[in-house]
Design goal:
Length: 181
C-alpha cells in the first residue's frame, strides 16, 4: 500500500475483535480508493428520518440476527449500493461515536480500501452518490438546520449546493488527519 494508507492504518483500531453491535449500534463503511476518494451517498427524503436528505457513508443499524457489526455493515452496504464489502481490503475501525441528536446511539466506521471506484447501484433509500476527493474537499463553517435549531458547524463542500456535515463530516476530518492529507 501507499504511505498515506500506512499512516491511516496506524490510527485505526484493529480489525479484531470485531465489535459485536447491539441495540443502539450502527456501522458505516468508509470506502476509500487508492486515489484518496471516499464514497458518499445521499439519503432519500423520508418523514421521521433525522438524517433525511443528508450525505453520508453507506451503512446502518445493527439488527437482531446480525452476528456482529461487520455483518451489519456488510448487509446494509449491499442493500444500499450493491457493493460486497468482503471483496475490499479492511484497514481497521475508527472508535465509536454518537450523533449529537442521538447521543444514545453508537456508530462505528469500518475503513475499507479499494484500488478503484466501484460500480454502484442505489436502492430506494438513497438518491445519489459521489466519490469525493479527500485532498480536494473544502471545509468551512455554515449554519445548518438541526432538530435542535440552527447551529454553526463545520461542513465539507461537494459543490455549491451539496454539503457534508454532522457525524459524516467528523469522520471525514478524522480520515484526513490520520492519513496526513
Amino acid at each position: 500500500m501507499s504511505e498515506w494508507t500506512s499512516r491511516l492504518e496506524r490510527c485505526l483500531l484493529p480489525l479484531n475483535p470485531i465489535p459485536q453491535g447491539g441495540d443502539y449500534w450502527a456501522g458505516v463503511a468508509a470506502i476509500l480508493t487508492l486515489d484518496k476518494e471516499v464514497l458518499l451517498v445521499k439519503r432519500a427524503v423520508r418523514p421521521g428520518d433525522p438524517w433525511s436528505g443528508d450525505w453520508a457513508m453507506p451503512g446502518g443499524k445493527w439488527r437482531k440476527g446480525d452476528a456482529n457489526l461487520y455483518e451489519s455493515i456488510k448487509r446494509e452496504v449491499m442493500e444500499e449500493t450493491s457493493i460486497d464489502i468482503s471483496s475490499l481490503r479492511p484497514a481497521g475501525w475508527l472508535p465509536p461515536r454518537s450523533p449529537r441528536i442521538r447521543p444514545e446511539m453508537k456508530i462505528m466506521p469500518l475503513i475499507l480500501l479499494t484500488s478503484s471506484r466501484l460500480k454502484i447501484v442505489l436502492n430506494d433509500e438513497l438518491t445519489d452518490y459521489c466519490w469525493a476527493s479527500l485532498t480536494s474537499l473544502v471545509c468551512e463553517k455554515r449554519v445548518m438546520k438541526t432538530p435542535r435549531g440552527e447551529e454553526l458547524t463545520d461542513v465539507y463542500l461537494l459543490d455549491e449546493t451539496n454539503v457534508v456535515w454532522g457525524i459524516t463530516a467528523r469522520i471525514i476530518q478524522e480520515l484526513i488527519d490520520c492519513a496526513g492529507l
